[in-house]
Amino acid sequence: MANEIKAPENKPEVKKKENLWKRFVKFLKDYKGEFKKITWPTAKQTAKNTGIVLAAMVVVGLFVVLLDLAFSQIIGLLGKIGS
To answer: How many C-alpha atoms does 31 have within 13 Å on its Cβ side?
Structure first.
């Protein structure tokens, strides 16, 4: 039993890294393949989305202006009370 020969364990083979140029070329091929999968919006969709973004910006801007005016009035009142 002490003299039993153990079978070598199956070790995963270590892959050597490809050189930098081959990896770069593979990256470019993969990039090109992924780029072809992109579905670009139509001009109509782009115009609609732009309008939505601009409208949202106006609404948020008005909200910030109203908050600024309200806080300015509150701070002005507090300043008058303090003096």
So the answer is: 6
DSSP state of 38: -
Q: Which tens digits make up the pLDDT trace of 21-57? A: 999 999 999 999 999 999 999 999 999 999 999 999 9
How far is residue 49's CA from residue 43's CA, in Å, rounded to a whole number?
Answer: 10
Half-sphere exposure of 30 (CA within 13 A, CB side): 6
24 vs 22: CA distance, rounded Å: 5
Eight-class DSSP state of 3: T
The one-letter amino acid code at 82 reads G
Cα separation of 57 and 75, whole Å? 27
Alpha-helical regions (H) of 1-83: 20-36, 43-82
